[in-house]
Amino acid sequence: MAQKQSILGRVAQLAKANINAIIDRAEDPQKMLDQLVRDYTNSIAEAEQAVAVTIGNLRLAEQDYNEDVSAVREWGNKAVAASRKADELRSAGNTADADKFDALAKVALRKQLDAEGEVRQAEPMIASQRETVEKLKSGLTSMKDKLGELRSKRDSLVARQKSAEAQQTVQGAISSINVLDPTSELSRFEDAVRREEALAMGQAEIAGASLDAQFAELEASDDETELEARLAALKAGSTSGPALSPTPVTPEVTAGARSGAVQDAPVDAYEE
C-alpha cells in the first residue's frame, strides 16, 4: 500500500508540474526541456507499470469478491436443501437422519456467513482500489498530456532559438557590410585607376616632348650643315644655293624694289 501511495503521489506531482515555471528557472531551457522529456518518459513507463499492477490486483480482488458472492449463494442453496431434507425425514418419522440434515444445513449456513464476511470485508478494499486505479489512470493521462506539451514546447523553443541565431547571423553580416561599405572600396579603387591613367598620360606627354626635341635638334643640325656647305661653295667661287626662277605670275623685282619702291608692272603682263 505504501508503494501505491508513493507512486500515486509521484504521478500527481508530475501531472501538476508547471512547465513554464520550470523553463523560466532553467539556465539552458533546451537542456532542461530535454531532461524533462526524459524524466517524464521514464516516469510514465514506471507509472504505466504501477497502474498495470494495481489494475491486476484489483481484478484479482474482484474475482475473489465474485467467488465469495457465489459461495454465499451456493452455501445458502445447500442450507435450504439440507433443511428441506431434514423436514421431509422428520415428517416421515426419521428423526435421526432429520437431525443430521439439520446439522448439514447449519454447516452450510456457517459457510454462508463466512463467505458473507469475506464479501463485506472485500467491498471497501475493492472500492479503494478502484478509486486508486482511476486516479492513477487520470494522472497517467495528464502525464502523457504534459509530455506532449513538453515536446511541443521544446520543438517550438528549439525552432525559435535557431531562427534567432539565424537572424543574429544575418544582422551581424549586415552590420559588417555597413561598417566596411563596399561602395567606398569601389571609390578608392576607381581613384587608384584614375591615378594610374593620369600617370600613363603624363609619361606619354613626356615621351612626346622628348621626341619633338630630338626632331628639332635634328632640323637645327641640318640647317647648320647647309650653312657650312654654302659657305664652302662661296669660297670655292660657285653660287650659293640652288638656282631659282620666278613663276609666270611673279612680278619682276628691281633694285628699287629692294630699297622699298615697287615698280608697277604693265597691265598687259597681268592680262597675259
Task: Give a short account of the largest sheet.
Answer: none
Write down the secondary-structure element order. HHHHHHH
State the CATH architecture of the largest domain: Orthogonal Bundle
- Number of beta strands: 0
CATH class type of the largest domain: Mainly Alpha
Strand content: under 5%
Number of DSSP helices? Answer: 7
Helix content: over 70%
> Gap between N and C termini, in Å?
156 Å
Structural shape: rod-shaped
The CATH topology of the largest domain is Helix Hairpins
Describe the structure.
- With 272 residues, this protein is mainly α.
- It has 2 domains: 2-180, Helix Hairpins, CATH 1.10.287; 183-234.
- The chain is built from 7 helices and no strands.
- The protein has helices spanning 2-15, 19-25, 29-91, 95-180, 182-235, 255-258, 267-271.
- α3 (29-91) packs antiparallel against α4.
- The chain is rod-shaped and about 210 Å long.
Features:
86% helix; 272 residues; mainly alpha; Helix Hairpins
Structure summary:
The chain is mostly helical and 272 residues long. The chain has seven helices and no strands. The radius of gyration is 67 Å and the shape is rod-shaped.
Topology:
Layout: H1 2-15, H2 19-25, H3 29-91, H4 95-180, H5 182-235, H6 255-258, H7 267-271
